[in-house]
Specification:
This protein is of the alpha+beta class. 22% of the residues lie in helices and 34% in strands.
Length: 97
């Protein structure tokens, strides 16, 4: 008798998207943010962020940006954000929604 096949866990990937956060507000209005997350799949990414699957799926892409990868891989499963027009600023840890 053979053993049942075990599902292999895929490697971590870094996904990115653009959003709007209250924490990024300037002058009382929300500003656009770049958000990143290290996860095993887009499905896991959606589960962690709590976003509706079909309505939000088209916005998420796997990033190849070295700075984004380094920041997200430091704490897998945690969403990081920064102002979308601030390319050299620090990555902020997002509050759970």
């Amino acid at each position: 008798m053979s053993e049942p096949k075990r599902k292999r866990r895929t490697r971590l990937k870094v996904f990115g998207w653009y959003g709007h956060r209250r924490e990024a507000a300037k002058g009382g209005r929300r500003e656009q943010t770049r958000e990143i997350l290290a996860a095993h799949s887009i499905t896991e990414c959606l589960r962690i962020t709590g976003e509706p699957t079909r309505a939000w799926l088209w916005q998420i892409t796997e990033t190849g940006n070295a700075a984004e990868i380094a920041a997200a891989m430091a704490e897998p499963g945690v969403v990081f954000w920064r102002q979308s027009d601030d390319y050299s600023g620090p990555w902020n840890r997002a509050e759970p929604r």
